[in-house]
Amino acid sequence: MIATALQDAEPIDTRRDHVVASYDVSGIREGGALDDITGFAAALCETPVALVTLIRGDTQEFLGRTGTDLPGTPRAISFCEHALDAAEVVEFTDLVGDPRFADNPLVTGGPQIRFYAGAPMRGDDGQTLGTLCILDTVARDGLTPLQRQGLAVLATAALARLDVRRADRRVETLGSDARRALSDSEQRFRTLADTMPQMVWSTLPDGFHDYYNARWYEFTGAPEGTTDGEGWNDMFHPDDQDRAWAVWRHSLATGDPYQIEYRLRHFDGVYRWVLGRALPIRDEGTGAITRWFGTCTDIHEQKLAMEEREVISQELSHRIKNIFAVIAGLVGFSARGRPEFRQVANDLRDRITALGRAHDFVRPHSAASRPEARQDSLHGLLGELFAAYRGDRTDRVAIDGDDVVIDDRSTTPLALLFHELATNATKYGALGHADGQVTVSVNRGDTNTTIAWTERGGPAVAQPARVGFGSQLIEMSAVRQLGGTVARDWRAEGLAVRVTVPNAVFSRAG
Questions:
Q1: Which domain holds residue 113?
Q2: CA distance 64 to 29
């Protein structure tokens, strides 16, 4: 009782330092004993930096590290200091906007950290020794539920690894007591895995499945041990078995992370969609894979919802396509009784048709209706627009240079811009002659992309005396809608147009 009272009265930092002193801190850090866990955490959470930290005195030491060579930092500027007393994973989504960290040198200079998440490593005695944390140089909305759970599991695994190393140091003097401690650590891991909502499994380096947690057996209803080895494959839908095996064999052969969606048989006999993921654990010295650690997450409801949204989206896009066709038909019908407006009506109908082709290119498609070209490709869009002008000669309109990622926001003005250039070339320029050709060259720079339209082999051209509607439409598309510039060169051998557009306009993804 007296000893307990004295221990309770001892300052927390002093107690922590006593516990930390019992670990092989230098050996763990120099040997990289925890780097596989930080590598796993960085991959799981998609961040450049992951650390296992230990607080001792005025210092924060990095026992495991991925993405940095720093051995540690002063405790005074440590983000982990704020996670030590937390009961679960702590996240700071935008450090610049947080008054606690806005002037932190790790934020204002050096690595310029913007996002932090840390899971406390708390021992059996309730003492928090440090954290498993991840860092990013961009602000984020936060971790997914799976990433938060995975970070907590990995923090427990890191602490268990530390406990094993401490136990190894005691083996020389404690003998059987150390072996019991190691067994207890393994039991803690199994207990933790059984409390997770995900199905957890592990395999030997050759892929032999030797462990499943309680969630696996609850989900599948399989008797314990019946899915060890290769028996797990029988739980997949017959149509998914070959594909799942192929992906798994690839990961075993290359060490690449394993990720696949497949249908897993539920205990009620119904197959449900799950997401399977696994990462390898490597030997700290040789780098050889020693185990695979994986999870299965039930995504059946999300999968069905996505399929329903895709059907609705395709139906809406199909109706919009029909609207373009109806409008074009109405324009043609209205012009029949007014011959003097026929040419204007034809031009308007052609422009509406071009917009329809652009919409059809980027709209959601099924596997059967999807165009051959990538739907986020500028080259693909231009190829679709110019198909009607090429005829039997594929070189009549040639596209070369860099490809650029586009989306639905930029597709409409791009379609109008190049439809007008192609139409004018057909009426007055190179595409109106059998030997005429057009080259479209794309050059993507650091901030802007230049698209050069060059005609040759057509009639001699000269700058028109007045600016027509088509030219105004080109200006509207390139300047007002895309925020770019247009430069024309009325060369005798053919028109040359240079369009410069900011890169950020092509796609929301930048």
A1: 9-177
A2: 6
User: In 3D, which of 261, 37, 232 has the Cα closest to residue 131?
Assistant: 37
Please state whether the predicted TM-score (pTM) of the whole model is above 0.70. Answer: no
Could you tell me the CATH number of the domain that includes residue 209? Answer: 3.30.450.20
**Helix or strand or coil: residue 396?**
coil
Question: CA 40 to CA 256: how far, in whole Å?
Answer: 12
User: Does 22 share its domain with 162?
Assistant: yes
User: DSSP code of 233?
Assistant: G
State which amino acid sits at residue 335: A
Q: What share of the chain is helix, strand, coil (3-state, %, to 5)?
A: 45, 25, 30
**CA dist., res. 213 & res. 195, Å (int):** 9
* 229 and 281 inside one domain: yes
Question: 378-390 and 408-428 are packed helices; what angle lies between their axes, rounded to 10 degrees?
Answer: 30
Assess whether 279 and 292 both reside in one domain. yes
Tokens matching residue 96: 């610049």
What is the number of structural domains in the chain? 4
pLDDT of residue 3: 31
**Residues 119 and 45 reside in one and the same domain:** yes
Phi/psi region, residue 57 (left: phi>0; alpha: psi -120 to 50; beta: rest), is: left
Highest mean pLDDT (candidates 189-193, 285-289, 304-308, 344-348): 285-289
Closest CA to 55 of 37, 31, 80: 80
Which CATH number do you get for residue 52?
3.30.450.40
The answer to whether 448 and 502 have CB atoms below 8 angstroms apart is: yes
In a domain, 182, yes or no: no
Residues 435 and 331 in one domain: no
Instruction: Give the model confidence (pLDDT) of 345-393 as tens digits.
Output: 565 565 556 556 555 555 554 554 555 556 678 888 888 777 767 666 6
Measured CA to CA, the distance from residue 340 to residue 333 in angstroms comes to 14
* Gap between the Cα atoms of 78 and 69, Å rounded: 16
| One domain for residues 268 and 334 | no
Nearest to 218 by CA among 150, 268, 168: 268
* Secondary structure class of 289 (helix, strand, coil): strand
The rounded distance, in Å, linking the Cα atoms of 460 and 170 is 92
Is 469 in the same domain as 344? no
Tens of pLDDT, residues 239-263:
998 888 899 999 999 999 999 999 9
Strands in 448-456's sheet, in edge-to-edge order, are 397-401, 437-444, 448-456, 494-502, 485-491
Question: Is 187 inside any structural domain?
Answer: no
Q: Does 9 score more than 90 pLDDT?
A: no
- 143 & 94 share domain: yes
Give the strands of the sheet with 59-66, arranged side by side. 72-74, 59-66, 49-56, 128-136, 115-122, 90-92
